[in-house]
Request: fold
Amino acid sequence: MKTCTPTTLLLTSTAVVSAFTVVPQNSRYITVARTSTHLNGLFDGVKEAFSAPPSQLDSERETPIDRWMGWSVVSENASSDSAAPADFVDSMDEKNYVAVELPKPMGIVFEENDSEYGGIFVQSLKDGGVAAENGVLQPGDQLVSVGTKDVSGMDFDDALGAIIESEGETTKLTLFRGSAKQFYGPTGPSKEWLSAFCEKGGVPAQ
Reply:
């Protein structure tokens, strides 16, 4: 009976490239010797390249391996859609609000916004009036609060009534410096933010 002869394997732990020594078939033992050849720098950076954070590619350059590796692809349309409007004014930034404390009559001509928005805004200032001399208010400013009362979105009579009914020698008005669309539209302040803003009396009067 033909018996199988054990094969002796000599292994080294640092080998990266193998070379084999061939021994004639009639030899009793076949020895496979692995020599160590160090290729320093050959694979440097490979691990880092595959473990790098996902990159963003143009949709036209996407390949199957991009999808397999989970690399994100952002189209030009998606990036442009996320851009803020050119006329954007942050309605939750107090820097975009002004406030005055004026005696009555104030010399302010208010006008109601279009019905889709509601609320009133400064249409003009009367020459020689208190507001004009104060110099803070500008035509187009949106009335937000009277004292600590939120009057945003109210119709003309109710918003103006809050000013008329206010007590004291002066009345504080807080206004948003922007358009009705910027305040009442999609980029307007949240209800929670606006409520807290009015409760504290808006911004300091100038």
Observations:
- The two ends are 110 Å apart (CA to CA).
